[in-house]
UniProtKB/TrEMBL annotation:
This is Phosphate starvation-inducible protein PsiH. It comes from the Bacteria. SUPFAM superfamilies: P-loop containing nucleoside triphosphate hydrolases, PIN domain-like. Keywords: ATP-binding, Nucleotide-binding. The gene is phoH. Residues 10-152 form the PIN domain. SMART domains: PINc. The lineage of its organism: Bacteria, Pseudomonadati, Pseudomonadota, Gammaproteobacteria, Chromatiales. It comes from Thiorhodovibrio winogradskyi. In the N-terminal section; belongs to the PINc/VapC protein family. Belongs to the PhoH family.
Amino acid sequence: MIKRQKDSVCLFVLDTNVLMHDPTAIFRFHEHHVFLPMVVLEELDAGKKGISEVARNVRQTSRFLDELISDASREDIEAGLPIQTLGDAGRSLSAPPAGRLFFQTKPLTSQASANLPSHSADNNILATALALREQHQDLQVVIVSKDINLRIKATVLGIAAEDYSNDQVLEDVDLLYTGLRTLPANFWDRHAKTLDSWKEEGRTFYRITGPDLAEWYPGECLSLTDDPPFEAMVREKRGAQEAVIELVEDYRLPRHNVWGIRARNPEQNFALNMLMNPEIDFVSLLGTAGTGKTLLALAAGLAQVLDRSIYREIIMTRVTVPVGEDIGFLPGTEEEKMTPWMGALMDNLEVLTQTEGGEWGRAATNDLVRNRIRISSMNFMRGRTFLHKYIILDEAQNLTAKQMKTLITRAGPGTKIVCLGNIAQIDTPYLTETTSGLTYVVDRFKYWDHSGHITLIRGERSRLADFASEQL
């Protein structure tokens, strides 16, 4: 792609999908100018109806634009409107931006755009950018779009094009917080003089002080390869150089199984410690297929709902994004409509309800379990408050940051939310590994004492699945 020159004032031509994705995008180019072609306003008008997230974003964009032009004259619009006049969002900036917002007020044509085929919206934007480049040779014209095909066509025509990257949580997904830190072999020797340990209600705690703790996070998992191996979690971070850590339970032992499930590797053991701890209100589990995310979350939920009565019921939901062709409308109630999307739930319930007692025993267990698990749709979450629920959000990588916020803020007292996903399998258009809502919450919650995160690495489904994950 042809990129813009650094340290030069630019005129950014925004595509419609940028505003549909982030209504505040017009505030994100402080020192530069923003141009909205007329075709973008027309596409916004066509997408304003409905109750989808995109339609809500379009209506919010229209409210921002209406606030801008409400007191503006024709001459003001022609000269470009200062972006800082856009209400609260503009005033929230630390310094008044120098850029202006321009609307297309007349047809723009250029000789280079005469060869563009058809009159599609994308080609209209390209033609507008070509005309602006001829008229404003002192500025660099850059198209900003979430549509990779439009960026390719812009590059072919010699126009600088960029993806909208302001919503990126990280520059590189490899920088994403994994939740696990491997301690050096000489860790205890270096901190022996400042070490303090005690037991409380059968739990072992250590208070450690030193400069090595500066990069630790609350809830982070600590591992030291030793004999026996040392596994602990950071329970409290006191300043930059002091922390309280706790030895974790070993759920790999038969006597510590959770609803018949035992951890098979250190990462699963850390995950079960987070899931079984009622002091941790938010847990996120990342991992490829077969690492046990859903099975661990369900087992811990059943143990705390049916055995310990910490939560009243399990609520499981996910985004209904199909992998292949959509199968159309589904009949029945909300739960019946969601059932085809919950194959992972049904598969894992078969594992968790394999009890002794023959068919009658299994049928009784199935009825008991299914009565305490409710399947809900993401479409009806807005405005609700969940009290003493254990909520499992599957396939969370397909949510935007705003959708994730909408769901998590539904949690009332005594509710635990578990987010599961694989950021390498995103099916939602315009979302990437660095802009996914799951990446967003993993990065933001790592500073909170009542959250936990772990990335599961080793597949435990079957030798066939493990080989396929590595080789295919």
